[in-house]
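Comment thread on ticket #2218

A.B. wrote:
> Attaching the input chain for the structure job we discussed in standup.
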Amino acid sequence: MKGKNNLIRFSILTLFSCAFYVFWVFSVAYQASFIKGFDKLFISLIANQNKIELFILKHLTVLANTPVVIGYTVVLVIFLLLKKKYALASFSTFVMVTANGNNWLLKHIVQRPRPTVPHLVTASGYSFPSGHSAGSMSICLVLIVVVIVLMKKSILKRLLLIILPILPFIIGMSRIYVHVHYPSDVVGGFIEAITFFLLGLLIFRTKITQQKKVRD
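C.D. wrote:
> Ran it. Output below, let me know if you need it in another format.
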């Protein structure tokens, strides 16, 4: 009964995430007034000309470039297959392919131009949703599951579970800092990744749980 109740609650959470994602996509696509206000507010809070911060974020943002994220994913999936963790490998592949594939598709459907201010890094294509935000969030969420399932209790495990949730937000902020995305693009990328991550967990949760080792 407890397992069934947990499944129901998790299914509701996933449906809510899907609904909110659809709402956000339509709000951006149809240029809702609150999206414009949201972008203006957060740009004013984040944007500045601190040379040290700009230098750091210009270099950190490349950590979520599309080829880099693909590289992370390939290495992770190969590692899991070699470890015979087939459910985790399937889960990781599902989340990364669906989240980032959907990102590419939506960019070409919504066709939102990038900010017109001078870009501080090279960026091509459309603006919404942020591919860097979706890519970094999806790979970090997947890695959190992998760490929880495979790693024994250790200082390294605790450190990873602290760092991994923070990284996507730094990457997302960097995209606003370097003037290639609106804040609503970044939020859209985050929601996109979270939605497909939850869908992946909903599909593979039973098999993933079976692979979890007994911890001390």
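A.B. wrote:
> Thanks. Noting for the ticket: The chain has a mean pLDDT of 87.
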